[in-house]
Fold these 3 entries.
Entry 1:
Amino acid sequence: MASPLEVRNIHKQFPLKDGGVHDVLVDVNFTAEAGEFVSLIGPSGCGKTTMLRIVHGLETPTRGEIICNSVKVEKPDHRRGLVFQHFNLFPWRTVLDNIGYGLEVRGDDKKSRIDRARVMIELVGLEGFGNHYPHEISGGMQQRVGIARALALDPEVLLMDEPFGALDAITRERLQRDISSILERQPKTTLFVTHNMDEAIYFSDRILVFGTRPGRIIEEVKVPLARPRQADTIRASREFTEIREHLWILLSKEMQREDA
Ligand SMILES: Nc1ncnc2c1ncn2[C@@H]1O[C@H](COP(=O)(O)OP(=O)(O)OP(=O)(O)O)[C@@H](O)[C@H]1O
Ligand SMILES: [Mg+2]
C-alpha cells in the first residue's frame, strides 16, 4: 500500500534580488507511514517551514512532487491540516467558528459544522469557551483552537510548524502532554517542525535532521522508545539521552560548517 505521504525529489529555489536564485531545498526525499510521527529539525533558515508549506500545497516546488495517499498535491485542501506557530485565528470569529472554518470552506452544513466543532472543543479541553473570541483566551488556548481547527477536518496528514514556539514553558509542556495523549488516542500521520530536540524525541517515531545551505536531509534518526511515553520518565532514560547526544552532535557540526 502507498504511504500516506511521499515527498519525492523536492528542490525549491527562491529568486534573489540581484537576479540570481537561492537553493533553499535540494533533493529532499522521505515518506511518512500511516500514524507515524515524523519531526523535521535543523538550523534556522534550512527550509523546514518551506518544506511544510510545499507539503500543504501553499508553495509549489521548483522540481519534484508531493503525493498524499496516491494523489499529487497541487494546492491546499482538507487532506492536509496545518497548525502554525502564531495561531493564525480569525479575531472576529468565535472559538467555535474558528474551529469550524475549514468545514465551512469544505461546504459542510451549519449543523454538522457546529456538532463537529463541539466534539473538537472537548477533545482539546476548551469546554465552555466556544463563544469566546481569540483575544479573550490565553495563547495556550488559542493554540488549542488552531489544533482543533486542523483536526476538525480529519486530515490524512497533520502538519505542525513549531506549534508550541510562541508559548511559555509551562503552557508548552501542558499542551505537549495533551497533544501527545490526543494522538495516542487518535493516531495521525504527522509532520512536525521544531527547534527543540527534547520535543522532537518525545513525540517522534523518526526525526529528519536537516542541514543548511542548501537545505537537505543529513540524517534520519529513529526513535524506538515505547509508547505511551511519559515526558518525565523518558527524559531520564538512557535511550533518550543517547538520541539527544547524537542529535546535538549532528546539529553542532552543521552549525560549525555553516559558520566556517
Ligand atoms: N517567499 C520567499 N521568498 C524568498 N525567500 C524565501 C521565501 N520563503 C523563505 N525564503 C528563504 O528560504 C530559506 C528557508 O526559509 P524557511 O522559513 O523555510 O526556514 P526555516 O528552516 O523554517 O527557518 P526557521 O527555523 O527560522 O523558522 C530562508 O533563507 C528564507 O529567507
Ligand atoms: Mg520556520
Entry 2:
Amino acid sequence: MTSDLKQPATACADTAWQDDVRAGVRHVRDLERLPLSPAERAAAQAAAASHKVRVPKPYLDLVDWNDPNDPIRAQVIPSPDELIATEGELGDPIGDHQFSPVPRLTHRHADRVLLFPTYQCAVYCRFCFRKESLTSIGRGYTREALEPALAYIAGHEEIREVILTGGDPLSLPDKALEEIRARIEAIAHVRLLRIHTRVPVALPSRITAGLVAALQGRLLVTVVTHFNHPREITPDTEEACRTMRQAGFVLLNQSVLLKGVNDRVEVLEELCRELMYRLGVKPYYLHHGDLAPGMAHRRTTIAEGQALVAELRARLSGICNPTYVIDLPDGGGKVPLAASHIESREGGTWRIRGQDGKVREYREVVG
Ligand code: SF4
C-alpha cells in the first residue's frame, strides 16, 4: 500500500512540502500547541471526533489567531457548532453512494465519472460534504482498490471525462499519480482528466515539477482548485498556479458559500477578481452550502446567495463571475440558482430585466 502524503526524497525543491506537512497540524493532539482557550480546545477536540483534523503549515500561517471569527481559522479548526445535528442534514448530501456501481466510483452523468483514488486529504475542511466518507471509508490509495473502477470505465464507452476527487488526489505521491494517470489514459475513449483539489490552496509547495510531470500525458488535464477566501491567495499559491498553467493545465475554481467566511459581496468580488487576474484561474462554481452534518452554522439561505451573485454580476466581468449552483440531494446534480432575468413571455416577445434593473422587451427575430 502506498501511504498518502509520503514519498521518497528526491530533489530539494520537490520535497520542501514534506516539511510543511510535518510542521502543520497532523492530528487532533497537535491542537494543543495552537493558541486556543482551554474551552475552545476541549470543544475542538470533541468536534474532531466526527471529522479528522489536518492543516499544513502554509495554511496555518494564514490564520489570524487574534480574531476568533477569522475566516481561515473557521475553515479548518473544529468548532463546537459542528456537534449540533440539524434536521434535514444528510450523511451523503449529493447522493454519491446511490450512483456508485463499484467501489471508489460514482457514475451520475453518462459522459463522466468521479473516481476516488484516496479518501485522505492534505487538509481537512470543516465544511466538507464528503466528511462521512472520509471518516467511515477513510482509506488511502492502493493499485488493487482501483481495479473494479478502472474496469468499469473501460467497459463504458460513453465515459469521456474522469474526475479524480476524494479525498484529495494531489495528496498522493507522484508515483501513484503517474500510475493512475497512465492507467486512465490507456482507456482509449477517455479524453479528459479532471482533478478536484484543495492542495494548491493549503499546501502549495506540493505543486512541484515532479507532480505536474506525473500528470502529463495524452489527456487534457483540468485542475479545479478550491479557493474560498481572497486571503488564501498568496505568493506561494500564485507560484503553484503558474507551475500548473505552464504545464498546460486548464485551471478552474469552485468555492463554497460559507456564512462568516465569504458571504459578503466585497469578499467574493476580491476573491473572483484575484483568482482570474492574479492566478489565471477561472471562477467556475460558487456552491450553495451542502446539507453536510453539523454545518447549519455555516450555511446561508438561497435568497442570500442569489442577492450576492446578482451584485457580483453587476460588479465583475463575465470571465470573473462564477455560476451559483446547488448540488441537489439524491443525485439530482448541479443546477444554477441565480434569479432569472426573464419577467414574462408572450409568443416570441420576452420581457427581460437588464443589469440596470429596467425591464425591456426583446422580440425574437428568426428566419
Ligand atoms: S480537501 Fe476536499 S475532500 Fe478533503 S476535506 Fe477539504 S473539501 Fe473535503
Entry 3:
Amino acid sequence: MTTLQATFCGQTYDNPFMNASGVHCMTTAELDELANSAAGSFVTKSATADSREGNPEPRYINLALGSINSMGLPNLGLAYYLADAIKRQTETPDVPFIMSVASYKGFDEYVDNMRQIQDSDYTGLVELNLSCPNVPGKPQMAYDFEDTARLLIEIFSFYTKPFGVKLPPYFDIQHFDKIAAVLNQFDLKFVNCINSIGNGLYIDEATDTVVIKPKGGFGGIGGEYVKPTALANVRALKQRLNPSIEIIGTGGILTGRDAYEHLLCGASMLQVGTQLQKEGPAVFDRLNAELRHILETKGYTSIAEFKGKLATLD
Ligand SMILES: Cc1cc2nc3c(=O)[nH]c(=O)nc-3n(C[C@H](O)[C@H](O)[C@H](O)COP(=O)(O)O)c2cc1C
C-alpha cells in the first residue's frame, strides 16, 4: 500500500501538500476551504500587527509560466488570525496548521507580534516571514544576516513555542553558507524555502507596459519560473542546516513531478502558491494523485524511501 503520509515537527499529515502563505488564506472562510480540501495542512496569510489594505490594483497577474505580484501584505491583522487559530486549535485539534506572521514596519513589529503570540493561548506552529519582497521602501529582513541574527536572538529571549522562518531565495553559495550559519545557532523547528523571487519585471507584449501597478511594475515572481531556484535553496539548506531543522519546499510546484523533486531535495512539506491561485483548492486532489502515481511507478511505498536522496554525478 502506497502512502503519502508526511511527518513534520512531530506530527503526521495525510500528505505533504499545503497552500503557500498569501494564496487562498486571507479569511476564515478561505482557511476552512483549505481545511476541507485534500491538502495535508495549511498556512494563514502573513499577519502584520494591524490590518492592511495592501498596494493598489492590479497587483497580481497570472503569467504563462507563473505569476507576478506586489500585494503589499494585505491582511486582516494579527488579532484576527490569532483568534481564528485559537478557535481552530480548540475545536479541531486534530487538524494542525501554521500561522504566518510578518512585519511591515521592521524589527520591532516582528518582536511585538511574536510577543503577542507568546502571551496568547495559541500553541501551534508559527512561520515567521523574513522575506516579504513587496513592501515599498522596506528591505527583506533575511537578506541582512546580522539583523536576522539579532532578531532571532531577541525573539528566542522570550518565545518558547515552536516556530520556523520563511526565507527569500539565495543565489550565491556564500549566502547559503551565511544564512545557514545564522539559523543553526537557534532551536528553529523548520525553514521554508522559498518566498517569491523578488522584484522581477514583466512587460506586456501588446502594449509595451508593465502589468502590475505598484512599484513601477516590479513584483515577486512565482510559479514555473522559480522551480530551479527553489530546488537549489531546499537542497542547499538541507545540506547545511542542523538535521533537527526541517524544510518546507515552496516554489514552482505545478505537478506531482515538481513535488517529487522538492522531496528528493529534502523537503518534508510542500507549499503551493501560484498554481493554487490559478486552479483553486482542487489542485490538491490532482497533486496527490500525480505524486502517488510517481511513487507507485517507481516502486516506493512511502516518501521516507526517497526523501533527500537526490543523486549527483560524482
Ligand atoms: C498573491 C501572492 C501573495 C503572497 N503572499 C505571501 C505572504 O503573505 N507571505 C509569504 O510568506 N509569502 C507570500 N507569497 C509567496 C508564496 O507563499 C510563495 O512563497 C511563492 O509564491 C512561491 O511559490 P509558488 O511558485 O508556488 O507561487 C505570496 C505569493 C503570491 C502569489
